[in-house]
Amino acid sequence: MVKNTVLYVLGLAGIVLFSCNNNTTGGAAAKDSLTSTSDTLAGQPSWALLPFTKLDSVNPVLAPGNASFMCPVRKQNVLWEEKDVFNPAVAVRNDSLFLLYRAQDKVGKPAGTSRIGLAASTDGVHFTRMPAPVLYPDNDAYKKYEWEGGCEDPRVVEDSAGTYYMTYTAFDGKQARLFVATSTDLVHWKKYGCVFAKAYNGKYMNVWSKSGSIVSNYSSDGKITAVKINGKYWMYWGDKYIWAATSDDLINWAPVEKAQGDTTKDEITSYGVDVTKLKPVIKYRPGKFDNDLVESGPPAILTPNGIVLLYNGRNLPATGDKSLVEGTYTSCQILLDKADPTHTVDRMNDYFMKPDKPYELTGQVNQVCFIEGLAKFKNKWWLYYGTADSKIAVTVKVVDK
Q1: Residue 361 belongs to what H/E stretch?
Q2: Banded pLDDT at 269 (limits 50, 70, 90)
Q3: Which end of the chain is more exposed for a tag (fewer CB within 10 A), N or C?
Q4: Which CATH number fits domain 7-398: 2.115.10.20, 2.60.40.2230, 3.40.1000.10, 3.20.20.70?
């Protein structure tokens, strides 16, 4: 839900945010409900971040808008978030919560050019957005990788000095590449290009790569700060398998390859380029709701029990969960070893959220709850997700004392 035509000054680098005749959905009389899998929570592991409650009274919290933006590539005004808004990252700054969300226009190919917008909230549910995107394809060194598919699906973390690092997908219409950009204020971003460009003489530069989830500490003041394990930053990435990568600086990343002599055969042998040397961390599971695809969600959480990664799974009922329809995206969690972030300690057997609301069942892509933004804010965990690749909703959990 978004406030109507109201000036919203947050002192964010002197930037003034305006609402833009945004759609609103829901009503105060609606009842918030536990996710449809609440009956399975009793059997879930104690390390999992649960339970979450969908805020039905306000969902979806963000819908397409009619803001106009002068596209530097097209050299004309476009309604940059007219078609769909979805898959947001989250940051907490100056007592406000910010969504950095993917927005699509109706003119770009293959399904509308994507740009990253910024919206702010003081309560987690009512958002006011900037009238122009903050990260987008431009006439720069990265245009050939970002045009005209765009900049997609961000995740955002900070370093100890307060610089923000955004991993996002650069899509040229055919090939997805995991890119990174930095900012000190969430508004002005500097692009660095493909995270794998310098690793192994660039051999993974053209691998299909996306969904960069960096292992982080989630502090009580809302900051999501990247942390080193064994002297390295760690990131989970990929959207068929989930693989890992390490970095010294949060900009240049090296995919984790199998140990010398490891001849394990994987189902995936080609991913645009040869990936047989990559070490799978999380695989899809035959017979289950995540039998067709697994994909990282928000930045992974470093906890006393290990690394908790919330992830997305896609189902094909012919070989998966026959109770879910074709292509259903659900949400799950896995616990990884903080001494060896490639080693699985435990994994939930059931999803904790599935699409069951009209705006989750029908949209650009039907039957989708896609989790991507997580933050501690006002004594709650706020988990934001894309609904049917069309809108943004939120589900919450009270922070354990």
Answers
A1: helix 358-361
A2: confident
A3: C
A4: 2.115.10.20
